[in-house]
Amino acid sequence: MRHSIMKLFMDYEKEEKWLNDMSAKGLQLVHYSFPRYTFEEGEPGEYTYRIQLLENIPSHLESQAYIRFLEEVGVEMVGSYIRWVYFRKKTADGPFELYSDRESRIRHYGQICLMIGAVGAINLGVGLMYVFGTELKVGWLNLFAAALAAVPVTFYGRRMLKLKRAQKIFE
Q: Where do the domains of the chain lie?
């Protein structure tokens, strides 16, 4: 039986935890289409889920090569949204981590900040242009979107700085 749940996350690690909690309850993610998660009933804890922001969209040649590599080691892509990709691996096949070291996690947080920061900057520019122009209502929506984008950029930026500090301690 299929179950569909609509949910929004601003923290991909909380989203990952939620997906793995759902798996522990026997609901396995089989498809993702923003903001809808589609689950099928299965064995509790059958899969471990990971989410990754790719450098390019999933149809890009480099992304396709990376996804094929993951498939060769038993990882399945179950969904994507823009550059975000949802992966799963059978829990019985062993641990499943996409970021094995501090440096790869720092790079990933940096990519997230860059992508969300660019969206925020565009909204800020458009918002200011409209607020000082004639379309006040539209401008305020863009300014709100820019302020909203600042939240995850600040959140992931702090995580990135914390990891960089820890990295310097161990150097």
A: 2-93, 102-169
